[in-house]
Amino acid sequence: MAHLQLYILALILVTSMWNIQTSNGSVQLMLRLYFQCSSKEIVSPCRSCERSCGQRETLDCVKDCRYGCICKMGWIRRNSTCIPMSQCEQKDL
Predict the structure, then answer these.
(1) 2-26 burial, b if ≥16 CB within 10 A, otherwise e?
(2) Is residue 63 within 8 Å of 46, Cβ to Cβ?
């Protein structure tokens, strides 16, 4: 039960921080650190919507929407890392 309360508190904190608009991107930086995103990733409120190399269609991701790291624009996920889109073969897009 304590883990559930901690999870809910963390979710409320992250959601609140996500809604704050800052000009210097400090909220996004704090979220990247919290979720341990790499320098090629950003935090998204719906990480399950991210496309990956070899995935031809977008998934029905809204049913499983969770905060997490996704690859930045111009990058695409292959296995667990973000690679430049140019390295993903055209037939895999």
Answers:
(1) eeeeeeeeeeeebeebeeeeeeeee
(2) no
Domains and CATH numbers, the chain: 2-92 (2.10.25.10)
Digit-coded pLDDT (tens) for 58-69: 666 666 778 888
Helices (H), 25-77: 26-35
pTM of the full predicted structure?
0.60
**33 CB-contact burial (10 Å; exposed 0-12 / middle 13-18 / buried 19+):** exposed
Contact 83, 53 (CB under 8 A): yes
Beta bridge partners of 82: 77
